[in-house]
Amino acid sequence: MTQTTNPAQSASDAESDVMIRLEGLTKRFPGQRANAVDELTMDIHEGEIVVLVGPSGCGKTTTMKMINRIIEPTSGRIILDGQDVTTADADELRRRIGYVIQQVGLFPHETIGQNIATVPKLVGWSAEQVRSRVDELLRMVNMEPDEYRDRFPKQLSGGQQQRIGVARALGADPSVMLMDEPFGAIDPITRDRLQNEFLRLQSEVRKTIVFVTHDIDEAIKMGDRIAILQEGSRIAQYDTPERILTAPANDFVKDFIGSGASLKRLNLSRVSEIELGSWPTVTSEDSHERAHELLAESIHSAVLVLDSERRPARWVTADDLRRGGGEPLDQVGSVPRAVIEPRATLSDALNELVAARYAVTIVVDEHGRYQGVVDIDQVNDSIRTMRSSAVAEARSEFTSMPSASTASGQADFPGIDPSETSS
């Protein structure tokens, strides 16, 4: 069965070119009666992250691996940047495509620099070009070259190894990257940070990325577009995260999204998109008297101490000041734990709020300098705004259709709980 792209996808055609086109792509493994991938047709546009998501066994990883022909298709065509690569040299094709997997796959007996240099060497870059590229990529993934270049993979944490896996995939500056559950084997806190770091990196390099995950929340956070796949990689819906949450195409999509669509929408908004709250702050050079004054003037139970670079250093309460004697302010109180950057999602902010000591998440810039705070009221306001916008958009689109009303005269908005229309 041939899959067609969603009408919403065509809106981007004028904005970006098709980088990957899959035409009737099919895979049947020997001894199997059904196709693992059944005549999949879809367009993936330049500079976008397209996430393939679906239940186990739906064929999403098989689909991704056919793009660089780690798995050879049974039939159909793969068009890469206008070129049919279905029967091209597979090794040459793979050198044009970056590949990141969950297990990282770094060569254990090679240094980090040698791992990153793998593909640039294979495609014939000079030694000087390779050295420069290795250091450039280490900086891009926020790992200082002089500190990490000559280390071995076993000397790195899991999160650091995953960063190197991304750097290696970018080695020869490919236009396309394939990512197979790249953050799946990492603890949740590190996973959130790596997701945010990767989105920051993508905003700079603008690669065309096919990203496989089984996690709808990760798909919503990472994807410019999401393809929700059923058995045989049949497309249930291929659309933007906003539209999938607002107007799921059918019951399969609704069930796969699950409950809590409003909370899932928090993955669509960044901290940078909201107005930050303020909090009373002092510097580490200020006196205890100054901290007491701010506490007396404030409704809050603690002041935030900033160091000489305006980075959060301590939470200090009146009790801390009494116990601290004459100690400098950055030596009393407690260390701030709930800290995020503006590129983090509101979902990240909410996760931090759950365990935050003073019911706020501190926001810092990329250099760690204090910018403001996010509290639960701001998150609630954002949820209400997003829900109202989603309902208004659905109502506008639905009422513009020729037969928008039901027999009772009330419009039925797909994917929208009627109770939300009053929000």
Q: How do the strands and helices of this protein lay out in sequence?
A:
Blueprint: H1 7-10, E1 18-27, E2 37-45, E3 49-53, H2 60-67, E4 75-80, E5 83-84, H3 90-95, E6 97-101, H4 112-116, H5 118-122, H6 127-140, H7 145-148, H8 158-169, E7 176-180, H9 188-205, E8 208-213, H10 216-222, E9 225-230, E10 234-239, H11 241-246, H12 251-257, H13 261-264, E11 281-283, H14 288-297, E12 302-306, E13 312-317, H15 318-324, E14 339-340, H16 346-355, E15 360-364, E16 370-375, H17 376-399
How would you portray this structure in words?
The chain has 423 residues and is of the alpha/beta class. The protein is 36% helix and 21% strand. It contains 17 helices and 16 strands. It has helices at residues 7-10, 60-67, 90-95, 112-116, 118-122, 127-140, 145-148, 158-169, 188-205, 216-222, 241-246, 251-257, 261-264, 288-297, 318-324, 346-355, 376-399, and strands at 18-27, 37-45, 49-53, 75-80, 83-84, 97-101, 176-180, 208-213, 225-230, 234-239, 281-283, 302-306, 312-317, 339-340, 360-364, 370-375. Strand 11, helix 14 (288-297) and strand 12 (302-306) form a beta-alpha-beta unit. The protein is globular and about 75 Å long.
List keywords for this structure.
423 residues; alpha/beta; disordered C terminus; 36% helix; four-stranded antiparallel sheet; single chain; globular
